[in-house]
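Might I ask for a little of your time on a matter of protein folding? Here, with my thanks, is the record as I have it:
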Amino acid sequence: MLLRILYEKPNYGYKLIEALEEKSCGCHRLETGSIYTLLRRMEHRGLVESEWERAETSGPERRIYRVTKMGEEALRSGLESILKRKAMMDDLAEFYRRNFMKTSEEGDERNV
């Protein structure tokens, strides 16, 4: 998910935390220390690179991360895995809809 976010727009740690929470519909939030550990690991693996950038205002410099060519390849190669996971989640969602969502016609008391 972080690679996808960085692919769309290079950014710094705090903004990445916000973007991850937004893109995951609030399901995932990383602590500040965790995001930088993860970004350092991704950088060591060659998936992202970073450089210091002066803030637009009088604030401190920030380390901006961006996806490398190797990171782009990782995103590209992950497509098959994502599609398989999506099919699995679609099937699971259909199971829940079919068995646990109340429909106006059925009035099934098992449903929530």
